[in-house]
Amino acid sequence: MIVADVPGFPGNQTALNPVGPGASQIEFQFLLTFWITAAVYCVVVIALVIAVARRRHSLGSMPDPLPTDESGERRLRRVVGAGAAVTVVLLFVMMIGSFETGRALGDMNQEDALTIDVYGHQWWWEIRYPNNEAYKIVDTANEFHLPVGTPIRFHGTSRDVIHSFWAPNVNGKRDLMPGYETEVMWQVDQPGRWRGQCAEYCGEQHAHMSFFIVAESKEQFAKWLADQAKSAVEPSTPQEMRGQQVFLSHGCVLCHSIRGTAAGSRVGPDLTHLRSRATIAAGALPNTIGNLGGWILNAQSIKPGCRMPPNQLSGSELQDLLAYLETLR
Known about the structure:
By secondary structure, the chain is α+β, with helices and mostly antiparallel strands. The chain has helices at 21-54, 70-106, 218-228, 238-249, 252-255, 289-298, 315-325; strands spanning 114-121, 124-129, 138-141, 143-147, 152-158, 163-166, 174-176, 182-186, 192-198, 210-216, 279-280, 285-286.
């Protein structure tokens, strides 16, 4: 079962509720085009209704193929000419609006922007916060934390097929293609939580490849980033210790990494602070212990075709493993 709304993320995903300068410019261009075309549509429909009403008594007769009413012809030419002139003017207005929107989006580029690396996978998002000091590099998955009012430079690519990185509340979409690197500028000007989505068909679970944005104050973001850079806490109870051994001795260690342990694979998401995230499986499920247990045992029943294989664990092994994963906050 796929859960549409996740606690803390109320499904807010719309370009008509902009929370940053990029989305605001896109909304302006959309509204400009919408109201111009709506007005033109209404004028055409009204003209059609008037023309039909005027000719309703002569619909059964054939019109004269060679009309001799020169004044009527001149009036018709003036109407057609005025319509063509208005059309050209409106097209230029929309074109100028489009140019202004493109220029405004281009002006967002700033050298001192916070850089975040994003990598598209089938079907999840790998997120990295680079740092010149290697031990402070933060790796997470499917959930972006961003400081409010700060320019963000997303540097991205794809690890397999073409994906498209799109958060309509913040900015337009940007394609991520394997073998190519791209950048897009973001800025979120108000705190809150928003949903994003892969916007390029990328396979069976494309529709369930979402991500979530947490915009918070600079102080909250700095604290979150510092906490995420820490290694996982050491297990403190016998059950947690057994759970760590289950993780390190079964298939988990072949795909995932946990900072501070021998697990260092980069195939799947980094799990060092797994339980600090609101969702698992790229938004497929809220991050609860029950959902996590079901995902570990048989992810294919939740997200068919995903890269997470089933795991053969006994009941006691699963409970020990879940107790250990509960410490990864």
